[in-house]
Design a protein that fits this description.
Number of strands of chain A: 11
GO molecular function, one term (chain A): oxidoreductase activity
Number of domains of chain A: 1
Number of helices of chain A: 2
Largest sheet of chain B: 7 strands, antiparallel
CATH topology of chain A: Pectate Lyase C-like
Order of helices and strands of chain B: EHEEHEEHEEHEEEHHHEEEEEE
Pfam family, one (chain B): GATase_6
Order of helices and strands of chain A: EHEEEEEEEEEHE
CATH architecture of chain A: 3 Solenoid
CATH superfamily of the largest domain in chain B: Aminohydrolase, N-terminal nucleophile (Ntn) domain
Strand order of the largest sheet of chain B: 7-2-8-1-14-13-15
Keywords (chain B): Glutamine amidotransferase, Transferase
Structural class of chain A: mainly beta
Radius of gyration of chain A: 19 Å
Shape of chain A: elongated
Strand content of chain B: 25-35%
Protein name (chain A): Protein glxC
Distance between the termini of chain A: 52 Å
CATH class of chain A: Mainly Beta
Largest sheet of chain A: 11 strands, mixed
CATH class of the largest domain in chain B: Alpha Beta
Oligomer: heterodimer
Largest interface: A-B, 19 and 16 residues
Radius of gyration of chain B: 18 Å
Shape of chain B: globular
InterPro entries (chain A): Glu_synth_asu_C_sf (IPR036485), Glu_synth_lsu_3 (IPR012061)
Helix content of chain B: 10-25%
Chain lengths: ~240, ~290
């Protein structure tokens, strides 16, 4: 079966997953060269399929019309992936760079282990958002579930809504900004002073997400690591 | 891994489509659990009569058994449904045990029918003719066996009380202890399966006077492990995830129905899904929809 390649809008490649296979679509996306002229892909009827647009490594835009399943845009490098719907578990898992925009809600482990790039979720994210994040920037316009930024090592998590239980449990150096309430802080996560440098950092992340001026930076509180669990100490054993 | 689906209709016009909708959902969940499958459908009932779902080995002559016990049975592959008055139930069970000891009663209730078998879920649904069934609500399961053997007994749903059934994705870590506690209370669990312990636990709590909601709330205290439960009762269905919410779940609600799936893919074929309210059930929160409400 060949991909149904039809020019829907100028310079766009349209793929309808009701008639084309996901495997062929991903293979075609993986083949794109850095200087490809097929820079804009429109995907119809994703129907919650898994691993859609995972493993991209080209400066292209992939816009998906509908809900996606697990690991959408996982390992993304360079690409812009827009999901006009909800995303399943692990959207943008281990992304290295680029931009992922989920216009609905995201399920668990959004942006998990992400090394770089920007993940924006218009709705809510579920549990363990940004778990073990390693440099990714995540902006959630809604709320995040429990254990978000668990073991976060680098990067930022910005939440315009509320955070669930055990935010930032066993956190290393990721920076967490929450505008709403926090149900509870995890082991070794503490609220920290919001200094000018942090306001500037938050402003930069909000700007990247197109939200600068839309929300008051003064409403955010910063959370970070108390740095007592970096090295094993028997007095802390109950916290691990 | 396992796949769970559930469908609770609000709009009676969809009732003839229930089986077809569930069959399609179950079909999509084949690759979450290819070992066995099962489903429970809440169809029409006759006041005063109890439905018994029977299961026998392949080739069981249910018509002959029906003649022998003096009640017609409706065979579906390896299962059959028999309707008797409440006063006759004990006598019919005794007669069944005598005439056909290899046949087991796997579900009872005024409306519930329960079918399960080893095999690919799509084939199981086809063998039982799920697509043609009608009803108000139904739950289904595709199993990837973890805690007990791949047998028909180990397939879901598990029914341990009248019109009650449960499907489970996950694994319970304290099922042996709960099983012993239930045994002390005189509750018998038939299989080695951890999910049957959960079903029996809920039945026990309800027998103690809990509502289903209360029983589910208690299970958060007493059942340890990973779980997403979907349970059916005569008039409703409920959903519960463990506090860590390890196992996936997504729900869709429209004016016409409430649907549950382990993944969105299972819901993607439902009518009006593009405008449904989609949400992920929160951990440790009891969800329940009731026809009577």
């Amino acid at each position: 079966m060949r991909l149904a390649l039809t020019p829907a809008v100028e310079a766009a490649v349209t793929v309808d997953l009701a008639s084309s296979s996901l495997r062929e679509l991903n293979a075609a996306l993986h083949k794109l060269a850095p200087d490809t002229t097929e820079a804009y892909w429109k995907i119809a009827n994703p129907a919650g399929r898994h691993a859609l647009a995972a493993g991209l490594d080209a400066p292209v835009t992939v816009e998906i019309d509908g809900p996606v399943g697990y690991y959408c845009a996982g390992m993304n490098k360079q690409a812009r992936v827009i999901v006009n719907g909800n995303a399943g578990v692990g959207v943008g898992e281990n992304m290295m760079s680029g931009f992922i925009h989920v216009k609905g809600d995201a399920s668990q482990s959004a942006g998990a282990t992400g090394n770089g790039g920007l993940l924006v979720i218009d709705g809510n994210a579920s549990a363990r958002c940004g778990i073990s994040m390693k440099g990714i920037d995540i902006v959630v316009k809604g709320s995040v579930g429990h254990l978000s930024a668990f073991m976060g090592q680098a990067g930022t998590l910005t939440v315009l809504g509320d955070a669930g239980e055990a935010l930032g449990d066993s956190l290393y150096e990721a920076k967490l900004f929450v505008r709403g309430s926090v149900a509870g802080l995890g082991a070794d996560c503490v609220e920290k002073e919001m200094r000018e440098e942090h306001k500037a950092l938050l402003a930069a992340k909000l700007e990247a997400a197109g939200l600068l001026g839309a929300v008051d930076i003064g409403e955010f509180r910063r959370y970070g690591s108390a740095r007592t669990l970096y090295h094993f100490h028997v007095d802390n054993v109950s916290n691990y | 891994m396992c796949g769970i689906v559930g469908l609770f209709l609000k709009n009676p016009k969809l009732e003839p489509e229930l089986g077809a909708m569930l069959a399609q959902m179950l079909d999509v969940m084949c690759d979450r659990g290819p070992d066995s499958a099962g489903f429970a459908v809440y169809g029409s009932g006759t006041p005063g009569l109890v439905k018994l779902t029977l299961r026998g080995p392949a080739g069981t002559d249910f018509a002959k058994i029906g003649t022998a016990i003096g009640h017609p049975v409706m065979p579906r592959d390896t299962h059959a449904v028999l309707s008797v008055s409440a006063s006759e139930e004990a006598g019919v069970r005794a007669a069944l045990a005598r005439i056909a000891p290899e046949v087991r009663v796997v579900g009872t209730g005024s409306r519930m029918e329960l079918y399960k078998e080893v095999g690919l879920p799509a084939d199981v649904a086809r063998r039982f003719g799920l697509e043609g069934m009608s009803g108000t609500h139904a739950i289904g399961h595709t199993r990837m066996a973890t805690e007990s053997a791949v047998t028909t007994d180990g397939a879901h749903p598990f029914s341990t009380g009248p019109d009650q059934c449960l499907v489970h994705n996950g694994s319970l870590s304290n099922h042996a202890g709960v099983r012993r506690q239930l045994a002390r209370e005189g509750v018998r669990v038939n299989t080695e399966n951890d999910s049957e312990v959960a079903a029996a636990y809920l039945t026990y709590r309800i027998a103690q006077g809990d509502t289903l909601g209360e029983a589910l709330t208690h299970s958060l205290d007493d059942l340890d492990g990973f779980y997403t439960f979907v349970v059916g009762t005569e008039s409703g269905f409920g959903v519960l995830r463990d506090p860590i919410a390890c196992k996936p779940a997504v729900m869709a609600e429209t004016d016409d129905y409430v649907a549950f799936g382990s993944e969105y893919r299972a819901l993607a074929g439902l009518p009006g899904i593009s405008s449904a309210r989609l949400f992920e059930p929160e951990p440790a929160k009891v969800y329940f929809w009731d026809r009577a409400a």
